Every structure is written in C-alpha cells, then in structure tokens.
Amino acid sequence: MELDPDQLNTRTMYEWMIHSILPRPIAWVSTVSVSGIANLAPFSFFQGVCARPPTLMFCPVNHRDGSPKDTLRNVEATGEFVVNTVSATDAEAMNATSAMLGFEESEFERFGVTAVPSSMVRPPRVASASVAFECRLDRIIRVSEGPAGGNIVLGRIVRMHVADAVIGAGGYPDPDKLDLVGRMGGTDYLRTRDRFSIDRPV
Ligand SMILES: Cc1cc2nc3c(=O)[nH]c(=O)nc-3n(C[C@H](O)[C@H](O)[C@H](O)COP(=O)(O)O)c2cc1C
Description:
Layout: H1 10-18, E1 27-32, E2 38-43, E3 46-51, E4 54-58, H2 70-78, E5 80-84, H3 91-96, H4 107-110, E6 115-116, E7 125-126, E8 131-142, E9 151-162, H5 175-178, E10 181-183, E11 189-191
Antiparallel strand pairs: 1-2, 1-5, 3-4, 4-9, 5-8, 6-7, 8-9, 10-11
The structure holds flavin mononucleotide.
C-alpha cells in the first residue's frame, strides 16, 4: 500500500500518522494566562531535542477554526510552561484535561488536579507527576497557518523535579516505578512495562 498525502484530507492523514507513529510519550503541559489562570492539557506530539542546552518540544496544532489552543496562547504570551509526565494512575485525569474548556476556566480546578508551585517559572506543576520539566520558551516554529496548522514549541529546561520514590538502583528513574503511559492511535494507551535491551554497536 502506498499513500500520497496530497490525495488525503487532513483528518485522514492525521489518522494515518497517529496510527503509525507509535508509541508516543505524553507531555502534560501546564501554563498560565497573563491574568493568572492555570491551564493544563496533554500533547503526544512531544519529544526531547538535545541536552546542550537542555531542550524539549511539543506540538499544539490549531483548532479547526484556525485559532490557537489555550496552551499555545499562554506560552506565546508568557514564555513559560511545565511538561509533566503521566503515570497510569493519572491517565484518566490527563484525558479529562484534554476537554475544550473556555480560556477563562482552569483544568486544574475543573478536574481536581492538584497543583504545586514551580521553582523557576510561573505555571504550577502537577503534584502527582513523577517528573516535571520547568521550561522557558526557546522559540515557536510555525509549520502552517489556519485550521489544523502546526506549531512546534521548543522549550529550554530550566529545572527538573523527580519524585524520590521513582529513582532506581542506577540513580535514574526506574521505568517500573514511573509506570508512564504512552498514546497509541484512537483512544488506546500503553504502559511502559514490556521492555527488552539491545547493546549498541561499538
Ligand atoms: C493523549 C492526548 C494527546 C494529545 N496530543 C495532542 C497534540 O500532540 N497536539 C494537539 O494539538 N492536541 C493534542 N491533544 C488534544 C489537546 O489536549 C486538546 O485539544 C486540548 O483541549 C488542548 O487544550 P488547551 O486549549 O487548553 O491548550 C491530545 C489529547 C490527548 C488526550
């Protein structure tokens, strides 16, 4: 089977991508508006970029009417955000926060997600997240404008919080203790429990 993106509508192309780019980590992104309302939403077009300087990225696409999502609005206006990880016990809450609330309403309050103050940035972090990356905006790359238009948000990690309880024998987070979830296609998720190792070539 061979697909020509030019022959597919945006929705169908999106479905092919999310059913093929698997599994995807989830950035649970907290931001604040200029007036101080805390926002929280998940993004699975998310990755680390490099460690010098420590940088990560996530991709909020525009709404169908071409307007930016609240997260992007806040990041543009304030230059700060926090990426929280999502453990299996937070999966339902994470999913709830993907609801489209009004700009003036906080997902933290609406869905009872406990926030704790960050150290370096204004947006709070999620108290139950095993790992949280406090970030300052590096740049936004606009891939396309209008409906479903793409935006790449690059953030400089200025502080990391790691729950002591997830640290493993090697001094870094233990995947079993983290028990993070990843997103598959549609409404499917997975847990990071099925693993194997392969030595790298010299
Ligand atoms: C697991 C999951 C992953 C998602 N990933 C993305 C994504 O990568 N990009 C995106 O624009 N929306 C994504 N969404 C949808 C947003 O979370 C949703 O549009 C949300 O309402 C945006 O909130 P905001 O307007 O407060 O920023 C995802 C939703 C879920 C449940």
